[in-house]
Amino acid sequence: QAFFCLLLCVPWGSSCPPSCQCTEQAGAKAVLCSSRHLVEIPKDIPRDAVFLKLDANSITRIPSNAFRHLSHLEELDLSRNAIEKIDRAAFKGVAAGLRTLDLSSNRIRSIPKEALLALNAKLRLANNPWHCECTLQEVLWEARLDPDSVQDITCHTAPQEEYVGKPLLQVLDAGVNFCSVHQRTTDVAMFITMFGWFTMVVVYVICYVRHNREDTCKHADYLKSLPSTQGHAE
């Protein structure tokens, strides 16, 4: 924060989004768009931006390739928005160089793991209404989370009521595995589907055999009704 305050004192002469302030210090270029009533990510962010602050706005979605042209970006602050949806390729193009990504204090319930696991950045995901399930568990285990904020990743909703309101880390430390629950649910669904198909096949075979038997009986009765060859000869 002190670094951003220092950057505010040095104006940036190149192009800058009209709703933002751009500054430069020792070659590090920052785009400061905090508290500007933005509802979407500006399209005209300079390509050589190193720091981008979009916090305290009303952004609701991070679309695919939203930052793809910002190959120099190292720090991205999207905290205190109204973000609900993050596309799978939202951070495509900045995954390699991004060092910190702040998504705290939004309205995120779930997020595609592909969007985060490709990042090397330190993540802040606290204070969102998370739905605790397998994907979030995988993100917690595999992504680089900020250790100071990981305790604030709380289950707003969960498959079982007893986990609601508890920190996800605490729930997982107690031995809960949302991924195994998901796997069992998937296995049950597959079993029910296979059983349904098997039942349909059995019913079809029974109907087919019964239909053929009825046709055979009708054909036999028809043959019996025909005059015999011996009767014609007499």
UniProtKB/TrEMBL annotation:
Alphabetical list of PANTHER family matching this protein: ANTIGEN BSP, PUTATIVE-RELATED (PTHR24369), LEUCINE-RICH REPEAT-CONTAINING PROTEIN 3 (PTHR24369:SF170)
Keyword Signal: yes
Residues annotated as transmembrane: 188-209
Record protein name field: Leucine-rich repeat-containing protein 3
Location in the cell: Membrane
Similarity section: Belongs to the LRRC3 family.
Sorted UniProt keywords: Leucine-rich repeat, Membrane, Repeat, Signal, Transmembrane, Transmembrane helix
Entry keyword annotation includes Isomerase: no
SMART domains: LRR_TYP (SM00369), LRRNT (SM00013)
Mode of membrane association: Single-pass membrane protein
InterPro entries the UniProt entry points to: Leu-rich_rpt, Leu-rich_rpt_typical-subtyp, LRR_dom_sf, LRR_TM_domain-containing, LRRNT
Gene Ontology, cellular component aspect: plasma membrane
Span of the signal peptide: 1-22
Positions of the LRRNT domain: 15-51
